[in-house]
C-alpha cells in the first residue's frame, strides 16, 4: 500500500499558442526545460482543439492552416515559493499569453517501497500524511 499526503499547493496555468517561440524554439519546450532545470515537481502540457485569446482570432484544428497554432496550456502544481521563483523567467520568456495562479488542495500518492531522494523531499514538505489512506 502506498503513502498518501494532503495539503495545499499553488496551481499555475500558462496559456500560450503552439506557434509561440523563445530563442527560435517552441516556447513550451523552453518552459519545460526551464522548469526542469529549476527542479519543479512536474509539468504537463495540454494541447487544445480550439480557442481564442486577446486577439479574438479563433484557432482550431478544423482548418489546416490554423491548426499550426493551437492553444496550449502548461500546468504546474508546486509550492507558492517555487512558483514565485520562476515568475521572473516567465516575464522574460513569454511575449504574449496569460498566466493564472490559484490555490489547490492536493492529494499526493507515493509508493510505499520507494524512498524519495533529497531532491524530491521538498515535494511532500508541508503536506500532511493522510492516516486514512
Order of helices and strands: EEEHEEEEHEE
- Kindly, what is the distance between the CA atoms of the first and last residues, rounded to a whole number of angstroms? 9 Å
Helix content: 10-25%
Low-pLDDT runs: none
The level 1 CATH classification is Alpha Beta
Strand percent estimate: 35-45%
Structural class: alpha+beta
The domain count comes to 1
The second-level CATH architecture is 2-Layer Sandwich
Radius of gyration: 17 Å
* Main sheet: strands, sense, barrel: 5 strands, antiparallel
Shape: elongated
Average pLDDT reading: 84
Annotation field: number of helices: 2
Instruction: Give me the count of strands.
Output: 9
Kindly report the CATH topology: Alpha-Beta Plaits
What does this structure look like?
The protein is an alpha+beta fold. It has a single domain, classed as Alpha-Beta Plaits (2-Layer Sandwich), CATH 3.30.70.120. The protein is built from 2 helices and 9 strands; from the N terminus they run E-E-E-H-E-E-E-E-H-E-E. It has helices spanning 27-37, 80-93; strands at 3-17, 21-22, 25-26, 43-47, 50-51, 59-60, 71-78, 98-110, 128-129. The strands form 3 sheets. Strands 1, 4, 7, 8 and 9 form a 5-stranded antiparallel sheet that branches. The chain has a two-stranded antiparallel ribbon with strand order 2-3. A hairpin with a 7-residue loop joins strand 5 and strand 6. Helix 1 (27-37) runs antiparallel to helix 2. The longest helix has 14 residues, at 80-93.
Name the features.
alpha+beta; Alpha-Beta Plaits; 133 residues; 38% strand
Amino acid at each position: 500500500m502506498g503513502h498518501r499526503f494532503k495539503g495545499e499547493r499553488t496551481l499555475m496555468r500558462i496559456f500560450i499558442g503552439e506557434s509561440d517561440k523563445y530563442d527560435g524554439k517552441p516556447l513550451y519546450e523552453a518552459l519545460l526545460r526551464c522548469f526542469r532545470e529549476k527542479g519543479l515537481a512536474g509539468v504537463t502540457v495540454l494541447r487544445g482543439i480550439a480557442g481564442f485569446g486577446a486577439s479574438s482570432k479563433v484557432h482550431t484544428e478544423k482548418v489546416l492552416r490554423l491548426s499550426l497554432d493551437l492553444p496550449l496550456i502548461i500546468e504546474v502544481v508546486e509550492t507558492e515559493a517555487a512558483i514565485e521563483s520562476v515568475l521572473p523567467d516567465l516575464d522574460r520568456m513569454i511575449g504574449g499569453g496569460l498566466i493564472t495562479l490559484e490555490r489547490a488542495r492536493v492529494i499526493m500518492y507515493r509508493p510505499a517501497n520507494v524512498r524519495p531522494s533529497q531532491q524530491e523531499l521538498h515535494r511532500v514538505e508541508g503536506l500532511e500524511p493522510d492516516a486514512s489512506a
